[in-house]
Amino acid sequence: MANKMIYLFDEGKAEWKDILGGKGANLAEMTRIGLPVPPGFTITTDACNEYYMNGEVVSEELKSQIRDALKKLEKKTGKMLGDTQRPLLISVRSGAAYSMPGMMDTILNLGMNDDTLAGLAALTGDERLAYDCYRRFIQMYANVVMGIDWYHFETILEKRMKDQDVKEENQLHTSDWKVIVSQYKELIVKLTKQHFPSNPIEQLEEAIKAVFRSWNNQRAKIYRKIHNIPHDLGTAVNIQMMVFGNRGEDSGTGVAFSRNPSTGEREIFGEFLLDAQGEDVVAGIRTPQSISILGEKMPHAFREFCDMSHLLETHYRDMQDIEFTIERGTLYLLQTRNGKRTAQAAVKIAVDLVQEGIISKEEALLRIQPDQLNKMLHRSIDQNLKKNVIGKGLPASPGAASGKIIFDADRAEQFSSLGEKVLLIRPETTPEDIHGILASQGIITSRGGMTSHAAVVARGLGKACICGCEEMKIDLKKKTMELKGITFNEGDFLSMDGGSGEIMMGEVKLKEPELSQEFLLLLQWADGVRKMGVRANADTPKDAVKARELGAEGIGLCRTEHMFLDAERVPIVREMILADTREDRLVALQRLLPYQEDDFMEIFKAMEGLPVTIRLLDPPLHEFLPDLEDLLVEVTKLQGAPDCDKRERYEKEQLLRKVRRLKEHNPMLGLRGCRLGILYPEIYDMQIEAIMGAVKKLEKMGRAIYPEIMIPLVGHDTELEVIKKRVLHIAAEYEVQIPVGTMIEVPRAALTADQIAKEANFFSFGTNDLTQTTLGFSRDDAETKFMHGYLEQKIIQENPFVTLDVDGVGKLIKMAVALGKSSNPQLKIGICGEHGGDKKSILFCSGAEIDYLSCSPYRIPLARLAAAQAQLEEPK
Amino acid sequence: MANKMIYLFDEGKAEWKDILGGKGANLAEMTRIGLPVPPGFTITTDACNEYYMNGEVVSEELKSQIRDALKKLEKKTGKMLGDTQRPLLISVRSGAAYSMPGMMDTILNLGMNDDTLAGLAALTGDERLAYDCYRRFIQMYANVVMGIDWYHFETILEKRMKDQDVKEENQLHTSDWKVIVSQYKELIVKLTKQHFPSNPIEQLEEAIKAVFRSWNNQRAKIYRKIHNIPHDLGTAVNIQMMVFGNRGEDSGTGVAFSRNPSTGEREIFGEFLLDAQGEDVVAGIRTPQSISILGEKMPHAFREFCDMSHLLETHYRDMQDIEFTIERGTLYLLQTRNGKRTAQAAVKIAVDLVQEGIISKEEALLRIQPDQLNKMLHRSIDQNLKKNVIGKGLPASPGAASGKIIFDADRAEQFSSLGEKVLLIRPETTPEDIHGILASQGIITSRGGMTSHAAVVARGLGKACICGCEEMKIDLKKKTMELKGITFNEGDFLSMDGGSGEIMMGEVKLKEPELSQEFLLLLQWADGVRKMGVRANADTPKDAVKARELGAEGIGLCRTEHMFLDAERVPIVREMILADTREDRLVALQRLLPYQEDDFMEIFKAMEGLPVTIRLLDPPLHEFLPDLEDLLVEVTKLQGAPDCDKRERYEKEQLLRKVRRLKEHNPMLGLRGCRLGILYPEIYDMQIEAIMGAVKKLEKMGRAIYPEIMIPLVGHDTELEVIKKRVLHIAAEYEVQIPVGTMIEVPRAALTADQIAKEANFFSFGTNDLTQTTLGFSRDDAETKFMHGYLEQKIIQENPFVTLDVDGVGKLIKMAVALGKSSNPQLKIGICGEHGGDKKSILFCSGAEIDYLSCSPYRIPLARLAAAQAQLEEPK
Asked: Does B565 reach chain A within 8 Å, measured CB to CB?
């Protein structure tokens, strides 16, 4: 028997997403549980794959199954495709296993032709409706199947509206629509040298092929790439009886969420358009009204919708995004799916669902993408500031942003790549604008609503977004925008608050986020589950306080070099570096000592009761000196000026000489880290003394301090041995007990971890440097010079400085853990590169027996959640 | 029973070097086989170690064993220590298991005091002899045991000689010696506030302690460090009856080799001093005469010596270095050991011994230090040049050298570290001068002979050396030297030929070495034994020819970037790099193509019949551009000059901008290697086409060409996959079959070698870069900034760029070999870093299943021999 490639809605169920696609499976599920879904059937993803395997040909078998299914549908509806008396109109929609909103094609009102037009008019008693359906069908079919640009049709429509002097489409008369339809058909003949197809079976087969093809259109491919969706899944096709939201004042169409997708509040949230078809909402062509209008105009239908929404949410155990149409007061559900939501809403909904008894805590933890937590830490506009609000739109995606305004996605990307902060301003966005949205701090559109493309994408990406700010007048050619009578040019600064919808003049100071109760509760649950510790990379008392507030269980990496960069200290640091003798260096170091001691005191206080791992000086010394090129220019100028200050010239020349002597070919692999500590032991001695002094003072004050000293860039056990001896010697003088450990950040350290572990109380993988050395990628050079090309050509799948390179660096880490623990079973192992705040990398760490993560303060919530997820996902 | 810590000479044998030291074991062996060795005994190295373990105290047990042994010695000689009638005089000499010539202390004539002085005079009938022994003893004992500087005594002696108006010591009368001895004793009282010890047992115990202590003096420690001798072996002490070479015209002392240590010729070669004690020869205080003088003066003794020399050589199966003394016509042997020799002599002697049936070929192969072969490739003075010879000394160590003359070891080291070639000029050298000798191209001394310190050390290090050039007048204070009436200052250029002893004016052109028959024969034997292949790193046809001449079996690394640096091509290369568009770049590349094709043609021809591995472009492109700093200075100057050429300024500014854009933070880890080939495929395409073009042309000429293409800096299998596809695509167009392989030079390549091997026909370990990335050592920065300190502080034992870091890099190599062969059993594996020419590294490679080595042409003989040794030393 041939493969079954079609399922009627009442044959499928929610679990069959793989073959029915998400939309098809949910339509089947809703049908199964008795909800009012217009009847239809789904062509499977297998059929789509078969189509591609056959060289983009629809098999006879599939055609025959389509005709069978159509017959059953006709029987069920009592209408017939192409019938002049009771014509069946259908929609043909894509629907893949993973939601790809707006990426693939849809055709509505299929089955219209000159003959069925009259039938539909007679059947509905509404000639205008019939024409409206016909012109929509022609336009969509011509666009999707025949590839004719949308704007050709819009031009005809707009001209007619202008000629007739009307502002809204629904003010046009039937006679106008007749003219428009015939002009549409002429246009098609003119552009394609063929007539618009009138045979509904031909229409259907072509429409199905077009949907299949849309699986591989450019924007769908890009979307899949961004979201890591495999390219060989294929799409299903849903064929469904049309219902008409465009049948007058008792009809309409809407999209609504079972909870607020922006805040997570438990309330129906959505939009509704009276007398319209669904496309009008989604495409953002008309700006819809709040769903509350439905409650006012059709209270019965609204109540019914609320009940169904609740039923669906309980059934699917998640917040739902529901498309519906009301035809003459009757409610139909056209689609339901788990709704996209802001990070804030995601957390609130997950926590609320636990508290409502619908899901478990573990499920709640697994539902939140750790990256989303970062978005909740987005800044907002400081409420205490006087804001110069110049416009307001729909609050489509929360978060505040400031930047230069740019009117086109390509230029937004260019400006952003130059390091500029950018706000993208568009009448509306389309999937072709994704790169511009990615490059921007925020997006503002003059058209479209909360479910328009811009809004959906921005929420997904955690970008601030304001939609439908209709008072904003954009001139794309001139690259200007007018608001409140003021003209803004490309590059002018504006600010926005995606949470309130407000647009403000100039740059505005942004405020740090506050954390919701749900957020804190979720993280508490995560802490109960995870086994890996989470510490912070924090170099200042301020960082330490913030880290602790966000749940850090100590500091895993305190970089002492940042303390050297304080304006007050830089001159002393330079004196120290440029000292001609050890004695002079000691004098400068003695002056730095009290500063360092103060730094450590404050950090220890902020982390009282928790471990603080201090890394001794790491960067090459020339980082603290003036730039060689600047000096060279200065000296050349002084040498060329006959009347220059001779003394100044001499001093600059001396400085240049010294800076040049310290210059290195590859500073990343040069005199830094413990190499400094070995060649200039007095520098580390000063730091160690400052630590001990701080500890001693705090201990005398009765504070519980847990310092640890970490040695950077160790590659040989002898390095650690020598420096550890110094540490313990000084610690003994202060009568302080202190664990000493090492960074593992060059491959040799990992390869000889058994030798090094004998000298170490702990390891901390410095995965940034370990990635640089293992791959031979200088981060600065790679990211500006070749990383982009490598990602584009798929030489590498991900930026290895963001997501840990498991095959290379990961292999070294696993070796080092095994070797280290083999010679020192007490060894504690952490990771303190930026990977400690990346979800995928954290999952790897969990499998690699890492004891704790350390990451920047704002990544701590993410790390806590990801560590919990790693625990939950671990094979039992 | 207590440990036996003393062995009489007739109790020991040659094999007991560990406990008796080399000298003690050989004295015992010579005694055992009946040669005329003055009787004595050896205190073991165990006793020395016990001395150190006891906190530098001689145990009662050892003292008691010393007294017992002394009694036996007194019985054997019929003399007694301290006896006024028949006083026994003894020597106390150090002797470790490894020869450390001149590094430790010796005391002669021990047992002298005012009482035995008379006895010795009576016994020998030679009062002058007795005084000579006495003053020598006082001077040596005071120096070694009491720490009084030698020059105090020399001053007294010289003053007396001047007062008495004599030129030679032996012209002084007994009365003079009496005065001198009493002045010596007064000096000691004055300097140490104590009397010179007269009790011979006290003298003996103190002397033994002094020899023990000398194991740890500074120069001995440095010597052990240089020669990798463990520091915990300790020294033995040899106590031996004195015989007197200073008993007049029928007495004397000498040092001779059983073969010529400079050339290897089979002839007695050495020096003899009439009427002298051994120290006079070794210390270079008097310049000795050729051994042939002995034949003239004492033909019987000379014949006897020749016979014994031959006997010893056959017994020890190697060329011997023999110390002897003739007392009143009777020959005594005082020491024998395997003689140090030049590289050339080592090879000739080893090959001759095989041909004389004394040793096997395998033994001969194992006897040559591979490094020595390099020395044989030293340059010489071109014989066709007119030489301006201004002086002549003893030809102490062969090889020619040119350089600036420097009169002090510290300054020699300084000049050398600035990149200057240096000749070290000294009256004589001492162990304190080793760093200066190391830093010099050659050494010239005005005093001392072929066995003086300078000569022995220079031969060991393969440095050119001329000794005893007495006509040279050195003024150390003024830093000048006079020869043939010309005064030379520090920094003047001279040249020297250590093989002829000639010193020449100015810089002289040096000639490449020619290879002896023995050298070639030995390498033939090596080729018969070794399993690892030996190829060359060669970038030019000239290199290729030289490499083949030295035995290369192909080219393992042909670096194409060197071809880009030709003066004619650099402008085109720059054009290519600075091109604004791909089209402009292609134009420049098309102009480079014929050059590259020619290069490859010539190299292929030179290596006809053998494989040639061509590495595609590797270095970062900015290496071909003008220096950024130079440009910056130029531009700054132009900008400051109001009347500058505006066009020139603009062009320079443009160039600066582009050079700056290409600048990288860490070029070693930046856009280079295959990353270039991936981002700019047209560059590699040009190179591949040039290779294919050359191959095709030569194949048409009937030549047998075996090219291979090697991709640099691969870290991901995808990189190799993409570029290999290009290579095979172009190769297919030319109908050429070509293996494609990759360098393994970043850790990730080694870690993922199983993935990479699927795409590779061969691997070649680029151990230079692999060392840089694995250790995180930028070679340029490490060697100038911290390597020295690391070696000094023993953080690392050896420079990892010279000798492979087995624990780190070696571990990676072993992993990569195993992983690579696991997924591709046909994989060929080579090594082409500089380690391919280092003996220890080659031994490692042999154990790591490396198929072939590739090294610079002049290292090929070394590699051939080392590969054979690796094979011979491999555990069966």
From this structure: no
